[in-house]
Design a protein that fits this description.
The complex is a heterodimer. Chain A is mostly helical. Chain A has helices at residues 3-7, 9-35, 39-59, 63-87, 100-117, 129-132, 134-146, 151-159, 161-182. Chain B has one domain (5-134). Chain B has helices at residues 5-27, 36-54, 56-62, 65-88, 103-134. Classes of the chains: A mainly alpha, B mainly alpha.
Chain lengths: 189, 139
């Protein structure tokens, strides 16, 4: 959203309406995931959850996160989970313990998270910690030093190049680990 | 899914556009949202879609397993190699200012190459994991 969109009352009402619809869908899908014991249904519903989540990211103006969520969350990981289901049983085993303690933990965590959101700054404010010191510094230096209009790219690949190298190495390591576990190497006799 | 004509035709039409969109996200990352990671997962998703519709064998003919498993470390090596290039040119590791005579051109080159490295590793890792999962039959 641009600066006008944040202040325009008509647009902000529309955005909150879209948010409410998406959040209701998320809750509905979560309840569906909780209630079914068929794991295939759980996987498909998780894919739908990721798609709704990607739409939420789009509303929040994080298009790159939305693309990743749609491609990885809804696409590749759904396919991987279905592939794993093909190798195992497709129905969830009945629980052996009473659900009281997990319910208590989940409600407690949820309550703490909701309490924590009251400490967050208002959405889109300029004078918060993340928008003043380092963030402001990047915004001021970026175009002069790199002439790249997208600050996210220049911070990710240049100013924080070490971090991204680390992330790429993490992905590489994860891939090698999964390959070592899953791939059947032919043994030489 | 051999008989599903609609799925086959629609995916055949869509996959080229998905791949072009991935290239756009990759190369336009300096100006719009996106970059190596996003482009990598979109490429992987396109190949996974192809494998679902046309079968694993067809996908592995188009994108061979050996190629995928070579690309996994290659991306990290491209990224790390840009860092070494910076040292060779007399700067610090991953300092792109020294790659060209003009520091801004150096930044552009460094970011371009580094993003390609990320894209190569991300897409091939996703595909390698998918191939490893899909290649296992029920025992």
């Amino acid at each position: 959203m641009s600066a006008d969109a944040l202040t325009d009352p008509q647009i902000s009402v529309m955005v909150s309406l879209i948010n409410m619809v998406l959040l209701t869908l998320l809750v509905t899908i979560s309840v569906g995931i909780l209630r079914t014991r068929l794991l295939v249904a759980v996987v498909v519903l998780s894919g739908a959850y990721s798609f709704v989540m990607a739409s939420m990211m789009l509303v929040l103006d994080a298009v790159d996160v939305a693309m990743t969520e749609a491609a990885v969350g809804a696409g590749v990981s759904t396919v991987l989970a279905l592939g794993a289901l093909y190798l195992t049983k497709a129905e969830e085993a009945p629980p052996h313990f009473s659900p009281i303690l997990p319910l208590f933990v989940a409600i407690g965590t949820g309550a703490m998270l909701i309490y924590g959101t009251h400490g967050l700054p208002e959405f889109g404010r300029g004078d918060t910690v993340m928008n003043t010191y380092v963030g402001l510094d990047y915004l001021q230096r970026d175009y002069r030093e790199t002439e790249i209009p997208n600050v996210v790219t220049s911070v990710l690949a240049s100013y924080r190049g070490y971090d991204t190298l680390g992330e790429t190495t993490v992905i590489f390591t994860a891939g090698i680990g999964v390959l070592l576990l899953l791939k059947r190497f032919r043994q030489r006799d | 899914m051999r008989l599903d004509v609609i799925l086959r035709v629609v995916s055949k039409m869509f996959i080229p556009f998905i791949l072009v969109f991935a290239l756009y996200v990759q190369l336009h990352g300096d100006f719009g949202p996106g970059g190596g990671f996003q482009a990598g997962v979109i490429i992987a998703a396109a190949v996974v879609l192809y494998a679902i519709i046309y079968g694993l064998k067809a996908a592995q003919r188009a994108v061979p397993v050996a190629l995928v498993e070579t690309l996994v470390p290659l991306g990290v090596m491209i990224y790390a190699g840009v860092g070494v290039w910076g040292i060779v040119e007399g700067g610090h590791y991953l300092n792109y200012n020294v790659l060209e005579h003009d520091p801004i051109h150096g930044q552009h080159w460094g970011i371009f190459l580094v993003e390609i490295g990320v894209m190569v590793t991300v897409s091939s890792t996703m595909l390698a994991i998918f191939y490893a999962f899909a290649g296992r039959g029920r025992q």
